[in-house]
Protein backbone atom coordinates (compact mmCIF):
# COMPACT_ATOMS: atom_id res chain seq x y z
CA UNK A 1 0.00 0.00 0.00
CA UNK A 2 1.18 3.44 -0.86
CA UNK A 3 -0.13 6.71 0.59
CA UNK A 4 0.09 9.98 -1.34
CA UNK A 5 -1.50 13.33 -0.72
CA UNK A 6 -4.05 14.75 -3.12
CA UNK A 7 -1.65 17.24 -4.74
CA UNK A 8 0.94 14.55 -5.48
CA UNK A 9 -1.75 12.22 -6.85
CA UNK A 10 -3.08 14.98 -9.09
CA UNK A 11 0.38 15.96 -10.35
CA UNK A 12 1.48 12.35 -10.91
CA UNK A 13 -1.83 10.71 -11.80
CA UNK A 14 -0.39 8.61 -14.64
CA UNK A 15 2.35 7.33 -12.36
CA UNK A 16 -0.13 6.52 -9.56
CA UNK A 17 -2.36 4.62 -11.97
CA UNK A 18 0.55 2.77 -13.59
CA UNK A 19 1.86 1.72 -10.19
CA UNK A 20 -1.44 0.26 -8.94
CA UNK A 21 -1.80 -1.71 -12.17
CA UNK A 22 1.82 -2.86 -12.39
CA UNK A 23 2.19 -3.75 -8.70
CA UNK A 24 -1.31 -5.22 -8.19
CA UNK A 25 -1.56 -2.99 -5.15
CA UNK A 26 -3.60 0.01 -4.11
CA UNK A 27 -2.85 3.62 -3.25
CA UNK A 28 -4.52 5.71 -0.58
CA UNK A 29 -4.98 9.35 -1.53
CA UNK A 30 -5.10 11.49 1.59
CA UNK A 31 -7.04 14.73 1.52
CA UNK A 32 -6.79 17.53 4.04
CA UNK A 33 -10.46 18.48 4.47
CA UNK A 34 -12.20 15.36 3.23
CA UNK A 35 -12.18 11.60 3.64
CA UNK A 36 -9.32 9.68 2.06
CA UNK A 37 -9.88 7.68 -1.12
CA UNK A 38 -8.40 4.50 -2.58
CA UNK A 39 -7.19 3.85 -6.13
CA UNK A 40 -6.76 0.27 -7.34
CA UNK A 41 -6.63 -1.58 -10.62
CA UNK A 42 -9.81 -2.92 -12.15
CA UNK A 43 -8.49 -6.49 -11.82
CA UNK A 44 -7.86 -5.94 -8.10
CA UNK A 45 -11.33 -4.42 -7.67
CA UNK A 46 -13.02 -7.27 -9.55
CA UNK A 47 -11.22 -9.84 -7.41
CA UNK A 48 -12.31 -8.03 -4.25
CA UNK A 49 -15.92 -7.87 -5.43
CA UNK A 50 -15.86 -11.59 -6.30
CA UNK A 51 -14.61 -12.39 -2.81
CA UNK A 52 -17.33 -10.22 -1.26
CA UNK A 53 -19.94 -11.98 -3.39
CA UNK A 54 -18.70 -15.44 -2.38
CA UNK A 55 -18.56 -14.59 1.32
CA UNK A 56 -21.88 -12.80 1.67
CA UNK A 57 -23.94 -16.01 1.67
CA UNK A 58 -23.53 -18.30 4.70
CA UNK A 59 -24.04 -21.38 2.50
CA UNK A 60 -21.13 -20.30 0.27
CA UNK A 61 -18.92 -19.69 3.30
CA UNK A 62 -19.71 -23.15 4.69
CA UNK A 63 -19.00 -24.78 1.33
CA UNK A 64 -15.67 -22.94 0.98
CA UNK A 65 -14.65 -23.85 4.55
CA UNK A 66 -15.48 -27.51 3.88
CA UNK A 67 -13.47 -27.45 0.65
CA UNK A 68 -10.47 -25.86 2.38
CA UNK A 69 -10.61 -28.47 5.13
CA UNK A 70 -10.74 -31.29 2.56
CA UNK A 71 -7.73 -29.80 0.80
CA UNK A 72 -5.77 -29.55 4.06
CA UNK A 73 -6.57 -33.20 4.79
CA UNK A 74 -5.30 -34.24 1.37
CA UNK A 75 -8.73 -35.27 0.16
CA UNK A 76 -8.24 -33.98 -3.37
CA UNK A 77 -8.62 -35.50 -6.79
CA UNK A 78 -6.66 -34.09 -9.69
CA UNK A 79 -8.50 -34.12 -13.02
CA UNK A 80 -7.78 -33.04 -16.54
CA UNK A 81 -9.65 -30.01 -17.82
CA UNK A 82 -12.15 -30.70 -20.57
CA UNK A 83 -12.41 -28.68 -23.76
CA UNK A 84 -16.19 -28.25 -23.33
Automatic annotation (TrEMBL):
Pfam families: PhdYeFM_antitox
SUPFAM superfamilies: YefM-like
Listed PANTHER family: ANTITOXIN YAFN-RELATED, ANTITOXIN YEFM
Assigned protein family: Belongs to the phD/YefM antitoxin family.
Functional note: Antitoxin component of a type II toxin-antitoxin (TA) system.
Name of the protein described by the UniProt record: Antitoxin
Protein species of origin: Neptunomonas marina
Amino acid sequence: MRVVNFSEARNKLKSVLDQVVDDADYTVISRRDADDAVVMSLDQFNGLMETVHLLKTPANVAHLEKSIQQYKEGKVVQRELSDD
